[in-house]
Amino acid sequence: MELTVLGCSGSYGAPAGGACSGYLLRTAGATLWLDCGNGTLANLQRHSPFEDVTALVITHWHPDHCADVYGLHVLLKYGLGRTGFPVFAPAGTEDRLATLVDGDWGGAFSWSAVADGDAVTVGDCGLRFSRTAHPPPTLAVEATADGKRLVYTADTGPDWSPQAFASGADLVLSEATFQGDDGPSGAGAIHLSARRAGEAARAAGARRLMLTHLWPGLDPNASVVEGSEAFGREVLLAAPHQRTRI
Ligand SMILES: [Zn+2]
Ligand SMILES: [Zn+2]
């Protein structure tokens, strides 16, 4: 299993090519695109011909996780003449996003609504979903293939944790929007600090932790120090185009 970061900027695009959330997960029998935030379709094409992508998962309908669905729609409809491309997303996403295409996706996508506790299989990859602590319906994703397991937190506040899945994931890819214990990352918040991401991954017995979705302008090294201290060992930091073997 290999994870390629297509974009990891938290909430809005960062300078110098900082696309928003998107990841490519390659297994022996599937290529999954997890979140299509702004800038990720362009970056995806540096790593894979689009024709090789098996399916798209949209964790929630905040634009930094789904805005490139519109470019993808154009690519499928006019570029590739393709219909029925599989998309897994929380119920309501299809209609919510359809306003900008006048309510008609033209059959480009085959939408499957997924919800908390659901499990689906795409190629050789098993996916499970868990509702996080984030305002629109938001689903964390667990991907299992090749004897390995990835947990992607999507966006969440501290009232959800990777412990919603079985402990001991090979890699937890966790949002870590903020820093410190105070301010917008406390209980009831809709995002995590690097410290809270580290604590949660440690409690969930994660083998490795990668921080992502950092707020643009924050010093990423400070997030790594904070997250590593809480996790108990060095964390990884997501960066555009970075590939990680899981
Ligand atoms: Zn986000
Ligand atoms: Zn969000």
Structure explained in plain terms:
This protein has six helices and 14 strands. By secondary structure, it is α/β, with parallel strands linked by helices. A hairpin with a 7-residue loop joins β8 (125-131) and β9 (139-145). The longest helix is centred in the N-terminal third of the chain and has 12 residues, at 69-80. It is globular, with a radius of gyration of 17 Å. The model has no long low-confidence stretch (mean pLDDT 96). The structure holds zinc ion (2 copies). One zinc ion (ZN) binds at residues 60, 62, 134, 155.
**Unreliable spans:** none
Secondary structural class: alpha/beta
Count of distinct strands: 14
Strand content: 25-35%
Distance between the termini: 5 Å
Q: Would you tell me the overall average pLDDT?
A: 96
Backbone shape: globular
Number of H- or I-type helical stretches: 6
Rg over CA atoms: 17 Å
* Helical content class: 10-25%
Largest sheet: spatial strand order: 6-5-4-3-2-1-14
Query: Could you tell me which ligands this complex binds, including any ions or cofactors?
Result: zinc ion
User: What characterizes the major β-sheet?
Assistant: 7 strands, mixed
